Amino acid sequence: MDRELLAQLRAELDRLDKREYELKQELFHVRAAAETKRKLIHDICKLRPVAAINRLPVEVLKQLFAGVSHRWRNIILNSPSLWTTICVCPTWPFSLVEMHVERSGEYPLDIAIVEWWDEDDDDDNTFNFLDPVLPYTHRWRSLTAHAGVPLTQFLRDFDRLFFPCLKSINIHGYDVFDFEFPAADNAPVLERLVLNRCRPAVTLLPSLERLTTLALKGAIGHWELRPRSIHLPLLRSLTVDVDSPRMLLQAIVVPGLSHFEATLSDVDSPFSDIPLFNEVHHLCLHASITCSVAEVCQAFPNVRHLEVGKLASKFFHGLQENTDLWSDLECVTFHSLHVTFLEEAVTEFREWLRVRKPTVKPLHVRFTRLKRRTGWKKRGKGLLSMLYNSLHENCTFEIDQFPLVERGKVTLLNHKLHLDLPHVPPCIVNMHSGQDIPWRESMDDFQNVSEDESIAITEDYIDSGDEESD
User: Fold this and answer.
1) Cα(197)–Cα(219) distance, rounded to whole angstroms?
2) pLDDT at 148
3) SS3 446
4) Bigger pLDDT: 302 or 71?
5) Is 151 in contact with 119 (CB distance < 8 Å)?
6) d(CA 3, CA 6)
7) How far apart are alpha carbons 138 and 108 in whole angstroms?
8) Predicted structure pTM score
9) Which of 343, 266, 270, 334 is nearest to 300 (CA)?
10) Rounded Cα gap, residues 216 and 20, in angstroms
11) Helix ranges (DSSP H) in 48-151
12) Mean pLDDT of the residues in the chain
């Protein structure tokens, strides 16, 4: 019986190998045909006559544009939509702000408070820069405040103003400060709220039922929230980096939440005893967590896209004991990993793939924003091959912003650049190099490339001074 089964398996493997070869041949012929058509289009375009305007002498062009520019200037000055972004900053004088307000007509305004970095600035003088735009709060569409000085002076009395059109608020404070604004009675259509380094009032969230996006980073430990006391029926995206995440998650009712992102360093069991977030399909976890993996999976049972960083190895080690969870997972993104964490994470991830229950759709894996350090040149060599050898049988994957540390050859073939890396598997494709670069598939693809067409021999060395912090 074993011999019979073995013979069947070998026959099936031979059939699959043959089919793989046929598909590769078909792909090669399709690419060759496409390249022929592309070259034909290129040649036809070269034969097209030069546009008449490009044949005019420079002096004639000068006379034409001298007359046209006046019209363009009038169009710009009389187009309100081009004047709606207003910066409240030291480099914008009152006259410039007032000109933008006047020329924007009745269009909605986007207000940005930026570039205040000097703590010795006179607070009263700083706040006065808002005077030209405060009478027009009925037209404010968005408010962004990123400054290196306390924002208290900027935002004082905002809770007494009315913003009937304000849809987006993004506040990034210099230091943690009390934040009383906004509320439903003065920002009734607010949809997006991002607060960074703020201590918002406890009455903030219950009054903002129209929010679709909420991001909180700061202190909410002074809040005393009862379970299921905050109803945000339209909320789709929630990002939290706060000192009491479990209290917040117990309090909110968000039936439509689909995206959840959290930074939970040094927070014990943030997901225990919280309601289920059944509609969350995109889960992003930063830093490390002390709760069990099972608690995460139980709180977010229907995740389809997971993003993890440093905690990846620990997380997938824990998942190996819960192979029946997250059966609908479709995509995993590893981001901001240093090379030392990458190998460990891939090892644990590969083991989880091995013991995971089979699924109909193969998992897709992304590696992005990998850390570059002084040791990358020495330790990063061969990692692309390691990733391919470890994962290609169990999932599809892509790599973005991955530093190359090996010698490669760039050649010009049929008006396109081709990059050849000797230790990189040919089926790894990265099209983010600024050029359309098909990766080398076989020696046959390059047999008509002459030495004269070779345009560069490149080495990608990592600058030892170009380090990124974890």
Assistant:
1) 7
2) 61
3) helix
4) 302
5) no
6) 5
7) 9
8) 0.71
9) 270
10) 50
11) 58-77, 94-103, 123-128
12) 76
